[in-house]
Amino acid sequence: MDAHLTRRKFLGRAGAALAAFSIVPARVLGANAPSKRINVAMIGTGNQGTLDLRMFLAEADVQVVAVCDVNRASHGYRSEDQFLGREPARRMVEDHYAGLQRSGVYRGCAAYNDFREVLARPDVDAVAIVVPDHWHRVMTVMAAEAGKDIYCEKPLSLTVADGRAMVEAVRRNNVILQTGSHQRSNPRTRFGCELVRNGRIGKLLRIETVLGPWNKVGPAAGWQPTPVPEGFDYGLWLGPAPWAPHHKDRCFYTFRFIQDYSGGQTTNLGAHALDMAQWGNGSDHTGPVEIEDDGSVLPEDGLFNVVQNVKFRARYANGVELTCRTAEEGDKTGAQCRFIGTEGWVETGAGGFFTFPDKLKLERLDRDELRLGTSSNHFRDFLDCIKTRATPAAPVETGHRSASFCHLANIAMQLKRKLRWDPAAEKFIDDEAANRMLSRAAREPWA
Ligand SMILES: NC(=O)c1ccc[n+]([C@@H]2O[C@H](COP(=O)([O-])OP(=O)(O)OC[C@H]3O[C@@H](n4cnc5c(N)ncnc54)[C@H](O)[C@@H]3O)[C@@H](O)[C@H]2O)c1
Question: Do 229 and 106 fall into the same domain?
Answer without folding.
Answer: no
